Amino acid sequence: MIDHLGFSVSDYERAKAFYAKALAPLGYSLIMEVTAEQTGHDPAAGFGADGKPDFWIGGEGAMNKPVHVAIAAKDRATVDAFYKAAIAAGGRDNGPPGIRPHYHPNYYGAFVRDPDGHNIEAVCHAPE
């Protein structure tokens, strides 16, 4: 079981603002932030739900290759809301909300590239 994940971004403040807006429909918010002074190197922001930060970004700088992160959504309407919020926050379309039957018959997902090109997905596995 994964406790949390993190990856670096090229512009920490821009990415923090993007994720605050894009993840809100999924019930995620900024739970905690650690400063460069506290970490001894770069700042980090932890987003999550119910008080637990499990999605972290760090100000270490751009990565060589983008990462893919999928966050579970409670229903298809939440996937749609994530996609709209992420696009409004400056994300780029990487696959609009819809069924992806090549994964399984009820796989409903939406994919957005964040400002660094990371592929962020919201997915619901429940039937309609």
Task: Considering the chains and any ligands shown, give keywords for the structure.
single chain, 128 residues, alpha+beta, 2,3-Dihydroxybiphenyl 1,2-Dioxygenase, domain 1, 5-stranded mixed sheet, 4-stranded mixed sheet, 9 strands
Structural account:
- The protein has a single domain (5-58, 66-124), classed as 2,3-Dihydroxybiphenyl 1,2-Dioxygenase, domain 1.
- Strand 7 and strand 8 form a beta hairpin.
- Helix content is 22%, strand content 34%.
- Strands 5, 6, 7, 8 and 9 form a 5-stranded mixed sheet that branches. Strands 1-4-3-2 form a 4-stranded mixed sheet.
- With 128 residues, the protein is α+β, with helices and mostly antiparallel strands.
- The protein has 3 helices and 9 strands; from the N terminus they run βαβαβββαββββ.
- The protein has helices at 12-22, 36-39, 76-88, and strands at residues 5-8, 29-34, 44-49, 52-58, 68-72, 92-93, 98-99, 108-113, 119-124.
- Helix 1 (12-22) runs antiparallel to helix 3 (76-88).
Sum this structure up briefly.
This protein has 128 residues and is α+β, with helices and mostly antiparallel strands. The chain contains 3 helices and 9 strands. The chain has helices at residues 12-22, 36-39, 76-88; strands at residues 5-8, 29-34, 44-49, 52-58, 68-72, 92-93, 98-99, 108-113, 119-124.
